[in-house]
Design a protein that fits this description.
Distance between the termini: 68 Å
Number of domains: 2
Oligomer: single chain
Structural class: alpha/beta
Bound molecules: nicotinamide-adenine-dinucleotide
Largest sheet: 6 strands, parallel
CATH topology of the largest domain: Rossmann fold
CATH architecture of the largest domain: 3-Layer(aba) Sandwich
CATH superfamily of the largest domain: NAD(P)-binding Rossmann-like Domain
Radius of gyration: 24 Å
Shape: globular
Number of helices: 18
Helix content: 40-55%
Strand content: 5-15%
């Protein structure tokens, strides 16, 4: 089967590499010539574990190629995936579908007879219907089908998630395209992966409902962390105690500085817009979105409190810029928002991230960047951990103490041991955690 994938971002490249590894012939298309140029030379423009080797191997086997020519790629494809971005529009929270519809216009004249157009981008309910309407208008002569196949991969583990997904969701309106999609995914589903086959609109909603549920879980545990701090309980134990209940599950119960990334914020806003336009009030999702916004300001205040009430004139070392470990993606990263809030409050920021530096260099020239974690904290008045990269949990805390001007550590990811930090002479502040005196927990009770 010949596949064309339009959009060479996180989703397009991972899908392309994985389908090629599954044995299909894949052409990946992007409208950025520089991106295609470096991909052809085997260099990928993003950081994603295992991806570069996978793409190179499939190029060597001639199962994977890259082009800017959408017409050539589409004209020989049985299946065309749309995997372009659907960011939030600047005003309001609606998804910007201009890239999707641009692709539809560009491909229409070149589709093969019987082609299946698969929407992998996250798109509001009804977008598949609209794509079908536009294609029928542009190609009244052609036979084709439009299918929804949302993607659930996580950046940082994208290849693994694509090859071993929890489930695959297919939303199709006819049996032939359902069968074709099942054949396409057969090499992956062989490993007992469940497939949910449903109608197109339901499939589109599943993606948004999944993200909205995860966002609600994160905001819930963050609010519980606030309560833990006020009543003297440990959020780590609370999360474990509830997460071991199979009805709840442990994933997404790590208290922290709030969710971010290229999907959760925009997808929740887009879902709320969809719900509003269909006259439905999603109170839980609205509360989760509002709680997450407030959280980032709350985290900046936590840093100020740890610094004695204000960060004005203080040098703050920030470890972590990416919205999560394993990626260089800083889109909507809570780290970036919190840095801006601290700067607005008068702090000087010096930052380090194992992967997010290139992107922050391009986007935020006013943040000083250090070459490694220890250089970052040299002479700083406080250390703030904002992304849970594993290497930060291995910091030599005695060295940290020696390098900091003031021994203040604000661990907004709870990756350090409070006991070890206080044994090294650091004033440690975590999220929803007791303050440690070394052997025993002591509690800083806001109510006392
Ligand atoms: P991205 O911004 O990384 O990549 C999009 C790519 O599409 C870019 O390379 C861009 O140059 C290209 N593009 C835009 N218009 C084009 C056109 N007309 N022709 C050819 N190429 C074009 O986006 P992404 O993170 O891969 O996300 C893609 C979609 O998948 C979004 O809808 C997103 O919500 C969804 N999604 C993303 C993730 C994730 O973790 N990144 C996970 C699941 C779903």
């Amino acid at each position: 089967m010949n596949i064309a994938i339009i959009g060479c971002g996180y989703v397009g490249l991972v899908s392309g590499g994985c389908f090629a590894s599954a044995g299909w012939t894949v052409t990946c298309v992007d409208n950025e010539p520089a991106k295609i140029g470096s991909l052809r030379q085997g260099r990928i423009p993003i950081y994603e574990p295992r991806l570069e080797e996978m793409l190179r191997e499939n190029m060597r086997l001639e199962r994977l190629s890259f082009t800017t020519e959408i017409d050539a790629a589409v004209s020989s494809a049985d299946v065309v995936f749309i995997a372009v971005g659907t960011p939030a529009l600047p005003a309001g929270g609606q998804a910007d579908l201009s890239h999707v519809f641009q692709v539809v216009g560009q491909m229409a004249g070149h589709l093969c007879e019987g082609a299946v157009i698969v929407v992998k981008s996250t798109v509001p309910v009804g977008t598949g219907d609209e794509i079908e309407r536009q294609l029928r208008r542009l190609r009244p002569d052609a036979r084709f089908a439009v299918v929804s196949n949302p993607e659930f991969l996580r950046e940082g583990a994208a290849v693994e998630d694509f090859m071993r997904p929890d489930r695959i969701v297919i939303g199709a309106e006819d049996n032939a395209s359902k069968r074709l999609m099942l054949r396409l995914y057969h090499p992956i589903t062989l490993d007992r992966v469940p497939v949910v086959v449903t109608r197109r609109r339901t499939s589109e909603l599943i993606k948004y409902a999944a993200n909205a549920f995860l966002v609600s879980k994160i905001t819930f545990i963050n609010e519980m962390a606030d309560l833990c701090e006020n009543i003297g309980a440990d959020i780590g134990d609370v999360a474990l105690g509830i997460g071991l209940d199979h009805r709840i599950g442990c994933a997404f119960l790590q208290a922290g500085p709030g969710y971010g990334g290229s999907c959760f914020p925009k997808d929740t806003m887009a879902l709320l817009e969809t719900a509003r336009s269909f006259g439905t009030h999603l109170r839980v999702v609205e509360a989760a979105v509002a709680g997450n916004e407030a959280r980032k300001r709350g985290m900046a205040l936590k840093v100020a409190e740890a610094c004695g009430g204000s960060v004005r004139g203080r040098r703050i070392a920030v470890l972590g810029l990416a919205f999560k470990p394993g990626t260089d993606d800083i889109r909507e990263s809570p780290a970036i928002t919190i840095i801006r809030l601290l700067q607005g409050d008068g702090a000087e920021i010096v930052a380090y991230d194992p992967e997010g530096m290139t992107r922050i260099r391009a986007r935020a020239g006013h943040v000083l960047l250090a070459n490694d974690a220890y250089a970052c904290m040299q002479g700083a008045d406080a250390l703030v951990i904002l992304t849970d990269w594993p290497e930060f949990s291995e910091l030599d805390l005695n060295r940290v103490k020696a390098l900091l001007r003031e021994p203040v550590v604000v661990d907004l990811r709870n990756i350090l041991s409070p006991e070890k930090a206080s044994a090294a002479g650091l004033a440690y502040v975590g999220v929803g955690r007791p303050v440690s005196d070394g052997d025993n927990h002591i509690w800083s009770l806001a109510a006392e």
